């Protein structure tokens, strides 16, 4: 099995929160801290290196993660979509990285234990190329760990489709790890999403 501390993490946090009608979903308060800070903190608790894809500075998200031992990675063309964030972040990975954990910035229910669960499933001596978290009923979600053999494909991504084509290219070489409930997929994109989520927690 792979020592989890040697897998760097990428936190995708360069999006525009376009459906939040002026608010920033990654700056929403979750248990007393901005969501982006929470995501970076739990990633850093399980990975010795964390890269954070961010919009060009100045931006409030830089302030939100100040003091954390993480590396901001400005995405000059962030407005293009997730493809630009993935291209930039994967290009910034250490050359020695044999795999990388990808974490969306807007999944407030994911826990440190969830990240550990997926990382602990990694075996770089197997034929598997991707390990990804799923919901308890098997729907694909995050985090996703990509083996180094797939890194070069990220340089070719465009638009806002993310890494779906890369996951598809791996075919049967994808291991799926069930996480509790809907935590692997529960992204909150609108003010109504956030209001409903908070109401369920009260």
TrEMBL record:
SUPFAM superfamilies: Nucleotide-diphospho-sugar transferases. GO terms for molecular function: nucleotidyltransferase activity. InterPro entries: MobA-like_NTP_Trfase (IPR025877), Nucleotide-diphossugar_trans (IPR029044). Keywords: Magnesium. Pfam families: NTP_transf_3. Residues 9-170 form the MobA-like NTP transferase domain. This is 4-diphosphocytidyl-2C-methyl-D-erythritol synthase. It comes from Pseudosulfitobacter pseudonitzschiae. The lineage of its organism: Bacteria, Pseudomonadati, Pseudomonadota, Alphaproteobacteria, Rhodobacterales.
């Amino acid at each position: 099995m792979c020592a989890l501390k040697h897998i760097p993490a990428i936190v995708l946090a360069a999006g525009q929160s376009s459906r939040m009608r002026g608010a920033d979903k990654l700056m929403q308060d979750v248990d007393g801290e901005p969501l982006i800070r929470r995501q970076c903190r739990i990633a850093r608790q399980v990975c010795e290196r964390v890269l954070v894809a961010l919009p060009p500075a100045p931006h409030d998200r830089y302030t939100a993660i100040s003091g954390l031992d993480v590396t901001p990675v400005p995405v000059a063309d962030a407005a293009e979509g997730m493809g630009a964030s993935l291209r930039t972040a994967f290009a910034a990975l250490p050359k020695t990285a044999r795999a990388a954990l990808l974490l969306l910035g807007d999944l407030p229910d994911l826990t440190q234990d969830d990240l550990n669960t997926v990382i602990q499933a990694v075996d770089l001596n197997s034929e598997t190329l991707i390990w990804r978290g799923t919901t308890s009923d098997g729907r694909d979600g995050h985090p996703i760990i990509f083996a180094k053999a797939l890194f070069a494909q990220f340089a070719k991504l465009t638009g806002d489709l993310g890494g779906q084509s890369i996951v598809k290219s791996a075919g049967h070489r994808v291991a799926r790890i069930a996480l509790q409930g809907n935590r692997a997929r529960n992204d909150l994109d609108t003010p109504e999403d956030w209001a409903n989520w908070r109401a369920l927690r009260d």
